[in-house]
Design goal:
mainly alpha; ABC transporter transmembrane region fold; 2 domains; about 80% helix
């Protein structure tokens, strides 16, 4: 009885010593050498390097004709709303004309507004489609380049936790898709807003430059008003959350 217990103790101690010497897992978990825990060697993930937008544009260089057509569509889409306001103001003048001229000019202006509506029906989907095609090609090119880089990495690189197959797949899926937002959505919207602002300013200064200057001087005040309104709404929502938590208690 004592012999069997001693042999069992020797076997257990030998197994523990073998596991400790080769770093094998035991029933209690993984054995780590003393003084080499995760607290002694903190792992800090390096910050990703900043990449200029010029390089991103170079990657999208083969789709330059598509981007050019998308830019033209975005400019037309941005100019439609200010031009629509101008046409609406011009159309009001026909109500002060004689009856015969009113009937004739109303038909002309009706056709003009139908043409503006057809143009809007064409340019808005064209902007989304063309910039979407350019963004999709960019995503495909970035994913192919990243995958080729991953394939040629050393085997020890895949042993790290942040370089597992799931992490690499998620990175290829999400990071490349986030780049598409710069080309597909943000770039088209930026071009459209710039075209709207320029067209509106041209129409405003052509109509009355004095009134246009007054409105431009009021723009910072309008921006400050919006900023303060957002701050007030955030403060009110925080107070409402505090009051609701107190009432629930």
């Amino acid at each position: 009885m004592l012999r069997s217990i001693s042999l069992e103790g020797v076997g257990n101690s030998g197994r523990r010593s073998l596991s400790a010497s080769f770093g094998l897992p035991t029933s209690a978990g993984f054995i780590e050498p003393v003084g080499e825990g995760p607290e002694d060697h903190p792992t800090t993930s390096p910050s990703p390097p900043e990449v200029p937008l010029r390089r991103l544009g170079y990657l999208n260089k083969p789709e330059f004709p598509v981007l050019l057509m998308g830019t033209v569509a975005a400019v037309i889409a941005g100019a439609i709303l200010p031009v629509f306001g101008l046409l609406l103001s011009k159309m009001i003048d026909i109500f002060y004309e004689p009856h015969d001229e009113l009937r004739k000019n109303s038909k002309i202006w009706a056709l003009v507004f139908v043409a503006v509506g057809v143009l809007s029906l064409l340019v808005y989907p064209a902007r989304f489609y063309l910039f979407g095609v350019a963004g999709g090609k960019l995503i495909q090119r970035i994913r192919r380049a990243c995958f080729e880089k991953v394939v040629h990495m050393e085997v020890s690189w895949f042993d790290e936790a942040e370089n597992s197959s799931g992490a690499i797949g998620a990175r290829l899926s999400t990071d490349a898709a986030s780049v598409r937002a710069l080309v597909g959505d943000a770039l088209g919207l930026l071009v459209q807003n710039i075209a709207s602002a320029i067209t509106g300013l041209v129409i405003a200064f052509e109509s009355s430059w004095q009134l246009a200057l007054i409105i431009l001087a009021m723009v910072p005040l309008l921006g400050l008003n919006g900023f303060l309104q957002v701050k007030f709404l955030k403060g009110f929502s925080a107070d409402a959350k505090v009051c609701s938590s107190l009432l629930l208690r």
